[in-house]
Amino acid sequence: MRGYLLKMLLSIGFLLLFSTKFVDVTIGERLYEYPLETAWKATGIPLQEVDTEAWLKLNDRRVSIYELKEIAGGLRKKLKLRLKTEMIIGEEKDFCYLSFEGIQGNGTNVTVTIQSLANGEFAETQLGVNTIYTGNMNNLREYIRDMRGQLAHLGSDLNFNVVFIGERSGRIPPLLIRELSGRAFRKINAELVDSAFEDGNSNQKAFSGLIKEAVEIDTHKINVEFDTRYDQNHNITQIILATPGTTGGV
Predict the structure, then answer these.
(1) 89-120: burial string, b at 16+ Cβ within 10 Å, e else
(2) Averaged in consecutive runs of 10 residues, what is the pLDDT profile of the chain (250 residues)?
């Protein structure tokens, strides 16, 4: 009996060691990487670019051009931007806007758009910030968290999306596209919800419990998309892995 108990204890100890090692290998990367990064690595395609797209509400007023300029000046300082372009300004009776481009110290290109409108009793000023980053792709989780943090306190109702982009030469056949997207989706336990293929382009929507935010389309929750775009002139297929609402579909 004593020998049996000893064997049981040794077996339990082995299982604990094995399970700990298994978690370190398979789940640890999910804890320390941004989920889209984990999924992207599974495709084996070199990552060339990380974009973010954000919209948020600044206030519930139709502001003047002067106020837009004041807001833009404050944003430039808060985002630590070195201007790349002059400010583009436009105004109509119930609508005005301001846009400019800048660059941050880490090389992130930033496009800022502020628009203010009034329609009857409704009035609102919105801020849009699009970023493009092609620098060091290490520690993307921290980079994306920092970018979101910079924007979150600027206004309310933040809609923040992330886009990973890479390329592959030639036209990718649908079978290989499904294989690549399958690798990416399986890595983050994402379940395929919908897919479409047309003229070398594709759009596949899925849902993963590892990504907090989600949108609902036709009663289905979606929070990750895998897209391909074939450029016939350059014979290159662009691969896009993104949160919903940024790829535009097929």
Answers:
(1) eeeeeeebbbbbbbebeeebbbbbbbbbbbee
(2) 42 34 37 83 96 94 93 95 95 92 96 93 94 90 92 90 95 95 96 91 93 84 95 96 62
Residue 155: DSSP 8-state: S
Whole-number pLDDT of residue 85: 94
The two counts, helices (H) then strands (E), for the chain are: 6, 13
CB neighbours of residue 63 within 10 Å: 20
Q: How far apart are CA 35 and CA 44, in angstroms?
A: 15
Cβ distance 238 to 228 under 8 Å?
yes
| CA quadruple 176, 181, 182, 183: dihedral, nearest 10 | 100
Domain 170-242, what architecture? 2-Layer Sandwich (3.30)
- Alpha carbons 189 and 19: distance in angstroms, whole number: 19
In this prediction, residue 215 carries a pLDDT of: 85
- The one-letter amino acid code at 4 reads Y
* Domain pair 53-161 / 170-242, same fold: no
Choose which CATH entry (3.30.2030, 1.10.287, 3.30.980, 3.40.50) describes domain 53-161: 3.30.2030
Sorted by where each begins, the domain ranges of the chain are 53-161, 170-242
pTM for the model? 0.82
